[in-house]
Design brief:
- By secondary structure, this protein is of the alpha+beta class.
- The chain has a single domain (3-156), classed as 3-Layer(aba) Sandwich (Aminopeptidase), CATH 3.40.630.
- 42% of the residues lie in helices and 24% in strands.
- A 7-stranded mixed β-sheet has the order 1-2-3-4-5-7-6, sandwiched between helices.
- Strand 2 and strand 3 (70-78) form a beta hairpin.
- Helix 2 packs across helix 5 (98-110).
- It is globular.
């Protein structure tokens, strides 16, 4: 019995290794719910931001939790030069126009994270508010760890902001440890947070 069959038999969400076709809007809505405050200065208004995310998803760079045909959680990652949430300069210019795009591109540049050799970088994790506290986030992290191991990565890296202690606690429960914290008081008014902590989790061979 495969993992998807086991999930279905247990009534648990099914973990998928890619965003299924037709679920782009659901994934975009989850991302906006989780990160809308941070992404707003770059992609507002919300409707346009969700549409931009949905239109530029890299489907095979996400682990999806699906329950009864609905996406209830997603964890994105960046590997091999691609991440779940895409869109380049030309896409931003096409969506928002030249003059409105310049400050948006400056904000988006703040979120760029390039993996080092042997490293998988998390590209965000989001769980539907109705399904939090039920282990979905942990299952998504387990799926990410499996992908990292299959690609020969030796560690997983992510960033967590200071106003999201619940997410940090989840990461710590699943083996992530804080490496450094960058104070960003100049971003508190614009993006709503004043510090970013980088965390790592080692990837064990055969995990």
């Amino acid at each position: 019995m495969g993992i998807e069959d086991q999930d279905a038999a247990n009534g648990a969400p099914t973990l998928l290794r890619a965003v299924p076709a037709g679920a782009e809007q659901q994934v975009a809505a989850l991302y906006w719910e989780a990160f809308g405050r941070k992404l707003g200065p770059a992609l507002d208004p919300p409707g346009a931001g969700r549409a931009f995310i949905a239109r530029h998803l890299d489907h095979d760079r996400g682990i999806v939790a699906e329950l009864d045909g609905e996406v209830i959680g997603v964890a994105g990652y960046r590997l091999g030069g691609r991440g779940l949430t895409g869109g380049d300069i030309g896409d931003v210019l096409a969506a928002y126009g030249v003059f409105r795009s310049l400050p948006r591109l400056a904000v988006l540049a703040l979120f760029e994270r390039t993996p080092e050799p042997g490293e998988l970088v998390m590209d965000g994790i989001a769980v539907d508010s109705r399904h939090r506290g039920l282990g979905t986030g942990g299952r998504l992290l387990t799926g990410i760890a499996a992908v990292a191991a299959e690609h020969g990565c030796h560690r997983i890296r992510l960033d967590v902001i200071d106003v999201n202690p619940r997410a940090r606690a989840l990461y710590e429960r699943h083996g992530f440890t804080a490496a450094r914290t960058e104070r960003t008081p100049y971003l508190r008014t614009l993006l709503g947070f004043g510090a970013v902590t980088t965390m790592y989790r080692p990837v064990l061979a055969g995990a």
